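Renewal narrative, Specific Aim 1. Our central claim is that a sequence can be written position by position from structural information alone. The example that follows is taken directly from our test logs and has not been curated for this report. It begins with the structure tokens describing the chain, in the order in which they were read.
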């Protein structure tokens, strides 16, 4: 399964997101400084949900965790929920999700459609400001996954081989 952090809401702080749905696993196209600037600019403007989910091979998005004290927890999300849509945008439609999550603001209400125990359920969430520790963790993970090059034995200088 592919891990997708809740940047959507965080977004998806930067879309954020989820972090998190924006991009569905695509690499960041910003250079490192531009990316950091983008995250910083959006930090106090984008709404936060507090979900982390995995995209399964079958294309479904299953809630992996609900952050303690998050709007998602207060709204009633549960681990194991299958997220089907956000504000009516099916999660399988990248363009629709990007449009539906791109302008989320703190205090805005967002409606998720989930499947739980075989039944479809709508969950309304009021977006909040992202906690500092969550923001730092998401930025750090994003930087490691998208902007840090890991040295390997094959990448060692020729005179060291």
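The sequence written for that structure reads:
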């Amino acid at each position: 399964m592919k891990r997708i952090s809740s940047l959507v809401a965080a977004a998806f702080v930067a879309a954020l997101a989820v972090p998190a749905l924006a991009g569905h696993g695509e690499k960041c196209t910003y250079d490192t400084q531009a990316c950091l600037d983008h995250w910083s600019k959006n930090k106090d403007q984008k709404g936060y949900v507090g979900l982390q989910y995995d995209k399964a091979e079958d294309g479904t998005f299953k809630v992996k965790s609900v952050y303690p004290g998050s709007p998602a927890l207060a709204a009633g999300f549960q681990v194991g929920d299958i997220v089907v849509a956000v504000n009516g945008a099916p999660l399988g439609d990248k363009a629709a999700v990007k449009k539906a999550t791109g302008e989320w603001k703190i205090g805005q209400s967002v409606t998720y459609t989930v499947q739980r125990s075989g039944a479809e359920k709508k969950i309304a969430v009021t977006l909040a400001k992202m906690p500092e520790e969550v923001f730092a963790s998401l930025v750090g993970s994003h930087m490691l996954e998208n902007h840090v090059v890991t040295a390997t034995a094959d990448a060692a200088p020729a005179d060291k081989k």
